[in-house]
Amino acid sequence: MSNPYAEWLRLNETRLFNLGTKAGWIDFVNAGPRPDFPTLTPNQMADLDADTLDDYNQARNIWNANPATVKTPQLKHAHELIDQVMASAHRDGNSVRGSIALDALPGLGKTTIASSYARQFDLRQRRRYGNTTTDGHPRLPVAFIPLSAGMTLKQLNQKVLRFYGHPAASRASKAELGTLAMDCIHSAETRLIVFDDLHFINFNHRNGIEVSNHLKWFANESAATFIHVGVGLAQRQYFEEGAGGDPALSQTARRTTSCSVVPFTRSTQSAERAWNRLLTSFEAHLKLARKTEGALTALSEYLHDRTQGHIASLTNLLDRACAIAISSGDEAITYEILKKVTIDNAAETTSK
Ligand SMILES: Nc1ncnc2c1ncn2[C@@H]1O[C@H](COP(=O)(O)OP(=O)(O)OP(=O)(O)O)[C@@H](O)[C@H]1O
Ligand SMILES: [Mg+2]
Asked: What end-to-end distance do the CA atoms of the chain give, in Å?
């Protein structure tokens, strides 16, 4: 008996994009959706030999854990705001481009919002202007720079150079690094730069103030618009440029448009509808033999209690529930299965 799932698995295994390098970013931008395959009924599954069934289940685990990005109200709102900020980037001359700060609690889809916007932008720029710049360099419309704990200015510039694959990333002196990073941004005609997890910078520390000034220099000198993504940026005094900063005097506060990403609530009818629409989108994606329409929305309140409306906790919960539904043979997401799942600590300790 032929086993189409082995081939599907070979071509569609779990993808690990390293967004912090140009190769990883380009792979992410070009990755299409995985090819769909029919959901089998329990009888059809019973007809499969053991290996084929095993591969079918593994293919479903990968499929179920990777729903398409849902156009949630939070995502739409943030994308519209970024569009507005990008509109001022059309100004000629060397006026400073604005930046946007996606500032929100963990697990609300900030990285997804930034990367999905940047992906569309990248595709559009390449379609319009081609893969090569006017000077004959490879065009990189977007740079995606994920930061890590305790970033110093030197490390930040190294991260930028690593994204561009510049060989001097680990060799150049501290003074040279910034100029090299700017050269990369210029020669690749980068127009959108995402700094993810900016909360790793302590804006109250000397290192952080140095980084904050450097980010302003990037904005002054380049033709790019910046998306700064982080948790609690306002509390960390990112907008005031560190302790003792007066917001009125802060250039960051004046140049940055703040966009918060809120958890889903069920406090009004329209909020509840948005939450239910999200559940419906995720439910439609699942490949389970005994799935019944509306099963997740019937558990809307319970799912909200478990996750506090954080999309990351919800996707975790559903991934794990699906895996149990498949391995147990239940083939549906039920209250009993959801109760068996342990998810992230924040959601578990907060849920009622
Ligand atoms: N619009 C969306 N549609 C589908 N899934 C989403 C969406 N937004 C987020 N997710 C899922 O939720 C999870 C967390 O999202 P993401 O990493 O974007 O959150 P985050 O706010 O950046 O989290 P952190 O604070 O940990 O960096 C991811 O697994 C992602 O697939
Ligand atoms: Mg993130």
From this structure: 49
Kindly report, residue by residue over 228-259, the tens digit of the pLDDT.
999 988 877 777 766 566 665 677 777 789 99
Where are the domains positioned within the chain? Answer: 73-260
- Give the Cα separation of 130 and 193 in Å (integer): 19
Say whether domain 73-260 belongs to CATH 3.40.50.300: yes
Q: How many residues does the chain have?
A: 352
Judge if the beta carbon of residue 315 lies within 6 A of ligand 1: yes
With beta carbons less than 8 A apart as the criterion, state whether 103 and 232 touch: yes
**pTM to 2 decimals?**
0.93
Q: 41 phi and psi, to 5 degrees?
A: -80, 165
CA–centroid distance, 287 to ligand 1, in Å, is 21
Q: Which residues surround ligand 2, an ion (CB under 5 A)?
A: 111
Tens-digit pLDDT profile for residues 300-313? 999 999 999 999 99
How far away, in angstroms, is 222 Cα from ligand 1 center?
29
Cα 165 to middle of ligand 2, angstroms? 23
Q: How far is CA 310 from CA 140, 187, 348, in A?
A: 32, 39, 12
310 lines ligand 1 (CB under 6 A): no
